[in-house]
Amino acid sequence: MRETRSHGTPGFPVGIYEMRQEAGQPILENHWHEEAEFLFVEDGQATFRIGYDEYELAAGDAVFIDGGELHGAFPLNGSGCSYRAVVFDLNWLIDPKDGISSRFLQPLSRGRIALATPFGSASEWGRRVLESLRAITDMEVSEDPAKEMRVKGLLYLLLAEFWTSGEWKARSRADSQDAKTIERMKGAMAHIELHFNRRLPVGELAEIAGMSEGHFSRVFKEFMRKTPVEYINHYRLRHAALRLGESDLTVGEVALESGFDNFSYFSKMFKALYHCSPSDYRRRHGGGT
Predict the structure, then answer these.
(1) What are the structural domain ranges in the chain?
(2) What is the DSSP letter of 102?
(3) Please, which of 3, 72, 167, 179 could form a disulfide with 116 given CB 3.0 to 4.6 Å?
């Protein structure tokens, strides 16, 4: 799904996040946002999917995620995973009048070049990048009046490590084709987000993506690790959980609003995901009257 929350502020468009997912918990739902992102693992391990590629990451490993790139993470060998992320607007670093921007930052922002990923403590340049990333994340609660200047400087420094070390490459035509497929998937997912509360045949989604139903289903499962139907139901259940916690609607009304016309099926699916009944979930999360 598309992430719509703001990362930072218009004047300081940087979001810093720390996530700790225990064994058995989802690691990171598939999503995308317009901002670029650096993410590094502090503890545990997980399989991270970025576009068409999958990486098994453990403590000391990191990845760069282009703005608009579909990405998520899944448990690996039953392990939990703790990670930090720096999400930022790459255009904040770009000044069209300087050579740095025209030679490196603008091509990166426009998807013409790709940074080496994954990377980490196994290389000297990777260790330097990780040091800069940790310094940025450690400044999340800093009251330093120069915090924004320091974060911006550190982002320049870590991107310079990729440039100096030659750890980047020009994107190929095959990369462009992959990107087109991903955009088709994102279009189908956006359609689900707009129309999840009604019947959504897989054929309708395939048409949005410009694919045959069979091909669409195969590609969708490859990316999302869920069939289209499983993804739609998961999205509906997440919406239902949100509404149970914040609204005064009855459980039956929440089920209907979320796209379930069979209450027994809704209750069964909800309990399988959240390990409690919808009513119990509401009591625990303060919804209702």
Answers:
(1) 14-170, 175-285
(2) I
(3) 167
Q: CA 135, CA 40: separation in Å to the nearest integer?
A: 12
User: Cβ of 32: how many Cβ atoms within 10 Å?
Assistant: 22
Terminal-to-terminal C-alpha distance of the chain: 31
SS3 127: helix
Q: How far, in Å, CA of 247 to CA of 276, rounded?
A: 18
pLDDT of residue 182: 82
Reduced DSSP (H G I as helix, E B as strand, rest coil) percent helix, strand, coil of the chain, to 5: 50, 20, 30
In the prediction, which pLDDT does 73 show?
A: 93
Angstrom distance (rounded) from CA 56 to CA 58: 7
CA distances from 56 to 47, 69, 79, 222 (A): 4, 18, 12, 16
* Average pLDDT over the chain, rounded to an integer: 90
- Find the helix or strand (DSSP H, E) in which 220 lies: helix 213-224
3-state secondary structure of 177: helix
Give the model confidence (pLDDT) of 125-184 as tens digits: 999 999 999 999 999 989 999 999 999 999 999 999 999 999 999 987 656 677 788 888
224 pLDDT band, cuts 50/70/90, is confident
For 14-170, CATH number?
Answer: 2.60.120.280
Handedness of CA 242, 189, 267, 218 (dihedral sign): negative
Task: Supply the CATH classification number for the domain 175-285.
Answer: 1.10.10.60
